[in-house]
Each structure stands twice: as structure tokens, then as C-alpha cells.
Fold this protein.
Amino acid sequence: MTQPALNLTAVVADDEQLARDELCFLLNQLGTVDIVGKASNGMEALDEIARHSPDVAFLDVQMPGLTGFEVARRLLAQGTGPGVIFVTAYDQRAIEAFEVNAVDYLLKPVNVQRLETAIERIRERRGGSEPLAGQLDRLVKMMAGQKGRRDQVAVKVSNRFVLVQADDIIHASLVEDSINIVTSQVSGTSNDRTLDELHGRLDPDVFWRVHRSHLVNINKVKEIVPWFSRNYILRMTDANATEIPVSRSQTRRLRDYLKL
């Protein structure tokens, strides 16, 4: 008599609580996955994975502290780890290329049937011949090369749109319901619905989500000003020398990057 499959154990990592709660709700509804840990940033994700040794980790691609890619790379460096399912906001054209890869992705908002398929793929590959590390390595490399980045960004200035080179963006900030973009030449708003959506189109090695409401071009930082509780404020190179706060979760990354 065939024994029923045991539930998979999972860690769910997403910096947006609503998205994290929604994915956990869907997993609980399926009844085939036990959630053993939750994380709101990349460092917490690594801690939870080390603590619980789950079968699968659901990693949001854009997270503070460490991105989902960076978490995956650290797991690869350790040589062992869970199956990884990336949760992304990338457009469908970029996503289509991932279908042929061994580990999986989920496109926000998460579809329950697609979630079931991803979980089944993890089950199948756990029993396969290729180590999960090898599967993950291929997907990380592929995603890094096919993220649908924008070379140009449309910035609305008054009643017109100005196209600017992505690398010319100094910082972008969420102000009420608008995303304000600042370059050395223009200042205006983006048509992206969320800061996550804008960040997903830019190079994550250059553009850092240093705060929930702020995205900065790390190459356009003029000064780093120490602040309370060993945190920092970034003074940018725009005409107003705008000061951007660095969240606690991003402070460690900044120190490591600049050897502070």
C-alpha cells in the first residue's frame, strides 16, 4: 500500500507583510506544506533556513539586507540547502525563460494552481539525480542575465514624459501615493505602481532599497553621515544634496560593501 507523501517544510521570506501573509495563507490552504519559519529580509531568511533546515525556501527576489538572489548564492556557497522557489514581480516575457529550469518561480500575485505546480516540481526534483545546488546555480545565473532591466526610464515632468538613462537616476522615493525620481537633470514621477516594481527593472547591484520608502543609486552617494544607533544617512549627489535614511536591515550591507 502506497504511503501518503509527507508534508514539505518551508521558510517564507518577503519584506512585504501582506504578500508574506497571502503566500502563507495559500500554503496552509493546500495542506501539503508546513511553514516552519518566516522572514522579512534576506538576513532573517538565512537565519531561519539555518535554524529549521526546511525542504523549500520561498524567496522574494527584492528584499532588504540581501536580495533573494544573494540569499540563494549564499546557500550555494554552503553546498547544501533547501529547494528554492523565487517569488518575483518580473514581467511575463522575462519569466517565460525560466520554465525550462529545475527550481521554480512564482509571479506575483501568486496563483494557487501555479503554487501547486511549483511544490510538485520541488518534490520531483528532491528525488532526482541532479543535486538541488546544481539546479539552483543554473537558475540564479539565468535570472541574473534575463531580468528585463530597463536601459531607459520614463519620468513624468509636468504634462510630458522625459526618457532618462537608468544609470542617471540618483534616487527614487515613495511620497504618499507617488514614486518620485530624481536625476541630475530632471525630477518627476514614475508610472510604476510600487517602488518594488521600479526596483525590479533596475540593476540590483547598483540600485539599493536602503529604506522601505527609498531606492538609491549606490554610485551617486556623495557622503555617508553617521546617525543614531550606528545607523547612517546618505547624502546624494543631486542639486539638493538630498539626505536618505538607511534602515537598520540595510546598514550591515552598507558597512560590508564600503568597509565602514
Notes: The helical segments are 17-30, 42-52, 68-78, 92-95, 112-126, 132-145, 195-199, 248-258. The mean pLDDT is 81.
